[in-house]
Amino acid sequence: MKILVVGANGQIGKHLVKTIQESGKSIARAMIRKQEQASYFESLGAETSVVNIEGEIADIAKAAEEVDAIVFTAGSGPHTGPDKTIAVDLDGAVKTIEAAKVAGVKRFIMVSSFDTTRNAIQEAPDSFKPYVIAKHYADEWLRETDLDYTIVHPGALTNDQGTGQVYAATEVARGSVSREDVASVIYECIENHSTIGKAFQVVSGETPIKEAIKKL
């Protein structure tokens, strides 16, 4: 299986590409913005495709040629303004979804925010509200397609070493989760077709990731 990781140079993206390559049965194609970012992924044996997420659908679709699944894990980051949030977290996500259709890729994993409901938008502080709005509508766009989607809503992200154990369900209490564990969750979703059409929240817990994903 070949998996396109959009936002591969991000922290979750790097963990995910490594996880895919170490699986021994799948190959990652890392979509990156700059050629100088390629060396890390090439050292893992992954493919690379240099595409700006703020570019055209056709460019993303070309990166998605001959892949079996797409993971959208791109993000504008916490230090950019609402303009970049809209351009990357909303428009970039929608363009990637549309590119999947063009490329004929059915399997799509969206890495979202912990809570993207209407209530979450209303309750979000002004500085965070554009991000929640962007993720809300990106998720809704994906739900309205006929893609085989899964939406992952991780808790507060940390750089702690992964434990390999989480708590995952439609709704869970707020908590944190390591980026490394989120990457493992994403990979298990790709492997487990029972997650198609599902959206779930995930935080650190006591259930092995493979088992937690099977129980969804």
UniProtKB/TrEMBL annotation:
Gene3D superfamilies listed in its UniProt record: NAD(P)-binding Rossmann-like Domain (3.40.50.720)
Residues of the NAD(P)-binding domain: 7-192
In terms of SUPFAM superfamilies, this protein maps to:
NAD(P)-binding Rossmann-fold domains
Please indicate which superkingdom the organism of origin belongs to.
Answer: Bacteria
The molecule here is called SDR family oxidoreductase
Q: Which organism is it from?
A: Halalkalibacter suaedae
**Organism phylogeny:** Bacteria, Bacillati, Bacillota, Bacilli, Bacillales
